[in-house]
Write a structure and sequence with these properties.
6 strands
Length: about 230
């Protein structure tokens, strides 16, 4: 197994993606897209919907429009939204290690923000329902920027709201689109893959790829004062 290179510095802030990184929600989203599409007579395989992971609404709908007209795409999206809301009313599980990592950063006074492709008010609702919202100094969503991931806008705005230089920020992501966004913002990035694993083109970007948030925690620990 290839050793993961140590982080080059203690970050001045850490910025987190939400779905698939902190909250185990991507499987629910995938199932809702597939069900909504089938109900509207559009049979697309799982691989197609995995291409949406990490993308904002506009880019996700653009992918759908490659296979259906606008009216059907909007109907599918509306049905997917309703299914997702129904299935998440009882809450969603957290990814292993997230609370421990957030507690570590909070104990050392390192600012934290969320940078998510989910729009408001759903983003704050999910963060609140899972108990994560109090850990963050800022929440930036695709509602706040003109260009969602993989553009760097969400990460740049998150750094700005924390009052930090992007070059001194660490970004934690699960998706290829998110990693490209964080790197384009000039941040150091750690990828914790969930449903979509990095291909050779993504690995060539040179960011760190770990198996879990517990591993990300381990990369930070040696840099923190004892």
């Amino acid at each position: 197994m290839t050793a993961i290179t140590a982080l080059p510095f203690l970050p001045d802030a850490v910025i987190f993606d939400m779905d698939g990184l902190m909250i185990d929600s991507e499987r629910v989203s995938l199932a809702c897209w597939m069900q909504a599409s089938r109900e509207h007579g559009l049979a697309l395989d799982e691989a197609f919907f995995l291409r949406m992971v990490g993308l904002g609404d506009k880019d996700s709908l653009a992918l759908m429009r490659q296979h259906a007209d606008d009216a059907r795409v909007l109907a599918i999206a509306a049905r997917c939204h309703d299914l997702y809301e129904e299935r998440t009313q009882q809450g969603l599980p957290l990814r292993p290690g997230i609370i421990e990592l957030l507690e570590l950063l909070r104990a050392h006074g390192i600012p934290r923000a969320v940078a998510t492709s989910t729009r408001q008010p759903r983003a704050n609702r999910k963060l609140g329902a899972t108990g994560l919202l109090p850990y963050f100094d800022a929440v930036v969503t695709s509602s706040d920027v003109a260009h969602p991931k993989p553009a760097p806008d969400i990460y740049l705005l998150a750094a700005q709201r924390l009052g930090q230089d992007p070059a001194r920020c660490l970004a934690l992501e699960d998706s290829p689109a998110g990693i490209r966004a964080a790197l384009a913002a000039g941040m150091t990035a750690i990828q914790v893959p969930d449903l979509v694993h990095p291909d050779e083109a993504l690995r060539a970007l040179g960011h760190r790829i770990v198996g879990s948030l517990v591993d990300a925690h381990a990369l930070l620990l040696p840099l923190l004062p004892r």
